[in-house]
């Protein structure tokens, strides 16, 4: 069947074909020039996406020793050209030269760019991951697939599964619930020739490093199965080292050359001829010309912002309390306060027989510091014990849940050398 075209419409059709062939529909550029420009743009933006994915994959493997998922690398790579095109569309109203924003040519250009960018980002992801493995000496081990199944079937690796619920470690701040939900039921691969103590140590170290947890205690059975996991956090900053009615202030002033952390210092204003005493504090830290001091709460108002002070050491023997506090913060041990109840398991018990190290006993208005091993405990006493969570869990007081965690921001006055 032949369709006849009206003779009066023929000039218009010929004009449209001429415009497309000459490129006048695109603002005067030829079709060949537009195609070359579009291909060069697709190639350039594709390379940009590949370089972006390579950099992200390289940094992720170096920071976490894990392989970045392919989808995340592709999205990160496409974010660079997409952002550039968005700026071009806002500024010029077009994404490719002389093509309207709402036009099939712009759509074809964007489709080609996304395709080329995804392919280049995939290649960049693989190359960046391999480069990071070579630079950081990371051994690549696929956890899934036929090779991993073959390794497990040969007994070269053993899968360790965490329990469905994660407990809180006694004496430590609680970890975020989202982290515990992420850990519940998770499986890890370890070499099969590890002993139970080695497997426990490797598991605890991996949980601490991979999930940024301050303290991890795992209980394993004789066959290596994980029975329980308790996690805890470590408080950042200096608030756990502040005693009652003590505050930390940062002032402008260089500490004396002979002063170290924990030394008592005097703060003065003015020059060498007209000096005025401000306060006495304990040196906590210094960074450049900024010094952090621990002072009494009443002396905190004596400092003026923007003023520079002069610090001098006091002719006193410095306290070793900061060394004890630093050791406590760096180790797994913690301090708990236990109430001795009438008829409870700790009544008439010797202080030296309690698991851990007995630091002090509060008995009414009397405080017994570092009690003797044969010091009997009486009903109404408060016993402060220093030890690891494993030792504290073995205390007889856990049978009736009478243990109360000590406030880390207000250490007991009877604890020797805990406050500056």
Order of helices and strands: HHHHHEEHEHEEEEEEEHEEEEHE
Category from helices, strands and their pairing: alpha+beta
Largest sheet: 5 strands, antiparallel
Spatial separation of the terminal alpha carbons: 103 Å
Shape: flat
**Which regions have little confidence, pLDDT < 50, spanning 5+ residues?**
1-29, 399-420
Quick tags:
alpha+beta, 15 strands, about 425 residues, 5-stranded antiparallel β-sheet, about 20% strand
Set out the fold topology.
Layout: H1 10-22, H2 31-64, H3 70-92, H4 104-135, H5 146-153, E1 157-161, E2 167-168, H6 177-183, E3 187-191, H7 196-211, E4 215-220, E5 226-232, E6 246-252, E7 264-269, E8 276-287, E9 290-296, E10 310-313, H8 321-330, E11 334-339, E12 357-363, E13 366-369, E14 382-387, H9 389-393, E15 403-405
Parallel strand pairs: 2-5
Antiparallel strand pairs: 1-3, 4-5, 6-9, 7-8, 7-10, 8-9, 11-14, 11-15, 12-13, 12-14
Helix pairs in contact: 2-3, 2-4, 3-4
């Amino acid at each position: 069947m032949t369709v006849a075209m009206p003779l009066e419409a023929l000039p218009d059709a010929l004009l449209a074909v001429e415009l497309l062939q000459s490129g006048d529909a695109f603002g005067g550029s030829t079709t060949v020039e537009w195609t070359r420009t579009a291909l060069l743009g697709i190639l350039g933006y594709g390379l940009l996406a590949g370089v972006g994915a390579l950099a992200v994959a390289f940094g992720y493997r170096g920071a976490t020793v894990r392989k970045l998922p392919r989808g995340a690398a592709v999205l990160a790579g496409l974010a660079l050209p997409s952002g550039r095109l968005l700026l071009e569309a806002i500024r010029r109203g077009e994404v490719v030269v002389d093509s309207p924003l709402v036009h099939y040519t712009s759509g074809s250009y964007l489709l080609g760019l996304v395709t080329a960018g995804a392919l280049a980002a995939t290649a960049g992801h693989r190359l960046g991951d391999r480069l990071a493995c070579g630079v950081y000496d990371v051994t690549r081990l696929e956890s899934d697939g036929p090779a991993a199944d073959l390794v497990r079937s040969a007994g070269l690796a053993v899968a360790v599964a965490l329990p469905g619920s994660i407990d809180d470690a006694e004496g430590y701040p609680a970890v975020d619930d989202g982290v515990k939900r992420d850990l519940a039921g998770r499986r890890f691969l370890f070499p099969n020739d590890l002993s139970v103590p080695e497997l426990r140590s490797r598991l605890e170290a991996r949980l601490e490093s991979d999930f940024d947890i301050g303290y991890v205690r795992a209980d394993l059975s004789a066959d290596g199965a994980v029975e329980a996991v308790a996690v805890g956090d470590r408080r950042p900053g200096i608030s756990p080292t502040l005693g009652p009615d003590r505050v930390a202030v940062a002032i402008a002033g260089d500490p004396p050359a002979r002063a170290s952390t924990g030394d008592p210092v005097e703060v003065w204003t003015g020059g060498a001829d007209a000096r005025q005493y401000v306060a006495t504090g304990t040196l906590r830290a210094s960074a450049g010309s900024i010094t952090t001091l621990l002072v009494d709460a009443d002396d905190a108002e004596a400092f003026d912002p923007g003023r520079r002070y002069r610090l001098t050491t006091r002719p006193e023997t410095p306290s070793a309390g900061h060394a004890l506090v630093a050791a406590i913060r760096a180790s797994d041990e913690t301090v708990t306060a236990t109430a001795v109840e009438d008829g409870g398991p700790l009544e008439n018990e010797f202080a030296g027989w309690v698991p851990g190290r007995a630091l002090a006993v509060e008995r009414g208005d009397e405080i017994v510091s570092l009690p003797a091993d044969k010091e009997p405990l009486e009903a109404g006493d408060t016993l402060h014990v220093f030890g690891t969570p494993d030792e504290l869990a073995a205390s007889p007081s856990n049978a009736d849940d009478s243990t109360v965690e000590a406030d880390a921001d207000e250490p007991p006055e009877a604890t020797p050398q805990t406050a500056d």
